[in-house]
Fold this protein.
Amino acid sequence: MPAPTSPRKKSLMPSTPLRRQLRGLGHALDAVVHIGKLGATSNVIKQVGQALLDHELVKVKIGTECPDTRFELAERFAAESGVNVVQILGRTVLLYKRHPKKPKYEKTAHIVGESKPAHSRKPDKARPGRKPDKARTGRSSGRR
């Protein structure tokens, strides 16, 4: 796996189907933790840890008055055990930590790209007692 192109993004988790899925799921999330002018204090780190335990996937919003850069904060969060930085986008950091007992996201990551097996697909037959669609009979509706 090649290293990230930017040394500032070295805290990001490697590109995998799981990361792609988490980025998509994180798009609709609201920020759970906001970091303000005091920066990432020990209480904020504890709050992020608790939020990750509750939700597994957490958005952290960094205020403009925060003394730390977004990359410094991402490295600090990534230094915690089991925490992965999924994405750094603007002043928002998306974090993921797998739940120790009931993971929500990792168990479905391998299913995302797979198609259904051939035996589970329904045959392409019309239902009994139903008129076929006009498109199937070749007749047009007469309107143009």
In short: The two ends are 56 Å apart (CA to CA).
